[in-house]
């Protein structure tokens, strides 16, 4: 396995080190290339993502990312627009995968959470995030701004298929989350696509939920969800809610996947570079370690992925109130393995 590692900035570097400890303990001999990408390089020479970065990343099987960001990078959003989004499009990461699981010991704000264990498959390249819009009459009282949601049959069908396959491999339930009663054009396309693909996955029960209702169920009855499939914007919102109900940012892992397998998929903790705690050795590397589990599952190393998740679960359950020490978490997981 050829692995590209982008530790990035702030706590990204700290949590990636722990994630690699775990990977090395489980899968010896992974060929790693480390990339100096992110705010550090941008602040040094003004480069975000070059064509040669992309070409070189493409030569790997998978990518592990820490976090990118630094408040000193100006203009605001330069790394998102100059690096993270271009990377997503260059590698065609159309499936954004966000598992949400409530581990014993996690600080859920819910009083009666029940069993929370679901996965959100968020479309990553279309919807309202394509920059398809414009502004006119700016600075006048008649200013107007538009963003048009782009939904193609091709783009929707490939994430819907991916979501069905994941549901078939889990508890066999797929929930489409949208707003089909109001967004009739985009919603109609999503619903028709789900209906048309469904017969190929006859073991999967199909459900539908409006986005507004879904935010309620996520708090009142999250156990009803197994796999959720949704568009880019709804997915952005609901995955943060999902992370909140399962105890927050320290355990949320994600995958950016090219389901066609043409380009390397990328795995990363959901959190950012956390400049407020960077360099203090107290970032929780659990989300990065769980990202390694997702990565291992993606490359077919299911048994190894299961072992990482079991070790994380045991660790979270035995922590108590003790403050997190980044390197100790990785050491404990490695020892448990
Ligand atoms: P970025 O711009 O890089 O996304 P951000 O300011 O949006 O950074 P995050 O880095 O996501 O924010 O952090 C949000 C809050 O959560 C911060 O207070 C941060 O300290 C905390 N936090 C994030 N990740 C972790 C972690 N792994 N362990 C502990 N606290 C964390
Ligand atoms: Mg952030």
Folded structure, characterized:
- This protein is an alpha/beta fold and 337 residues long.
- The protein folds into two domains: 1-92 and 262-337, 3-Layer(aba) Sandwich (Isopropylmalate Dehydrogenase), CATH 3.40.718.10; 109-245, Isopropylmalate Dehydrogenase (3-Layer(aba) Sandwich).
- Helix content is 41%, strand content 19%.
- It contains eleven helices and twelve strands.
- The strands form two sheets. It has a ten-stranded mixed sheet, with helices on both faces. Strands 6-7 form a two-stranded antiparallel ribbon.
- The protein is globular and about 50 Å long.
- The structure holds adenosine-5'-triphosphate and magnesium ion.
- Adenosine-5'-triphosphate (ATP) binds at residues 11, 15, 67, 69, 249-250, 271-274, 276-277, 283-284, 287.
- Its main location: cytoplasm.
- Substrate binds at residues 88, 98, 122, 212.
- Belongs to the isocitrate and isopropylmalate dehydrogenases family. LeuB type 2 subfamily.
- Residues 2-333 form the Isopropylmalate dehydrogenase-like domain.
């Amino acid at each position: 396995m050829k692995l590209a590692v982008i530790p990035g900035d702030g706590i990204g570097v700290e949590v990636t080190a722990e994630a690699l400890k775990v990977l090395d303990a489980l899968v010896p001999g992974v060929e790693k290339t480390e990339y100096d990408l992110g705010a550090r390089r941008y602040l040094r020479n003004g480069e975000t993502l070059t064509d040669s970065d992309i070409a070189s990343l493409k030569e790997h099987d998978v990518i592990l990312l820490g976090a990118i960001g630094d408040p000193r990078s100006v203009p605001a959003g330069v790394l998102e627009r100059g690096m993270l989004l271009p990377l997503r499009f260059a590698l065609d990461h159309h499936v954004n995968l966000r598992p949400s699981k409530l581990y014993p010991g996690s600080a859920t704000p819910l009083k009666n959470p029940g069993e929370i264990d679901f996965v959100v498959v968020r479309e990553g390249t279309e919807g309202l995030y394509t920059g398809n819009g414009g502004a006119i009459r700016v600075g006048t009282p008649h200013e107007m701004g538009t963003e048009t949601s782009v939904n193609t049959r091709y783009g929707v069908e490939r994430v819907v298929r991916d979501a069905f396959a994941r549901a078939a491999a889990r508890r066999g339930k797929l929930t489409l989350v949208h707003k089909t009663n109001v967004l009739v054009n985009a919603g109609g396309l999503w619903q028709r696509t789900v209906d048309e693909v469904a017969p190929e996955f006859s073991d999967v029960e199909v459900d539908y939920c409006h986005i507004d209702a879904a935010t309620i169920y996520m708090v009142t009855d999250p156990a009803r969800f197994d796999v959720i499939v949704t568009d880019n914007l709804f997915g952005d919102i609901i995955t943060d809610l999902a992370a909140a109900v399962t105890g927050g940012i320290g355990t949320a892992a994600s995958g950016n996947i090219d389901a066609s397998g043409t380009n390397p998929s990328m795995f990363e903790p959901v959190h950012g570079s956390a400049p407020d705690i960077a360099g203090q050795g107290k970032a929780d590397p659990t989300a990065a370690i769980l990202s390694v589990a997702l990565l291992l599952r993606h490359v077919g190393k299911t048994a190894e992925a299961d072992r990482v998740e079991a070790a994380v679960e045991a660790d979270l359950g035995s922590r108590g109130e003790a403050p997190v020490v980044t390197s100790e978490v990785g050491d404990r997981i490695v020892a448990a393995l």
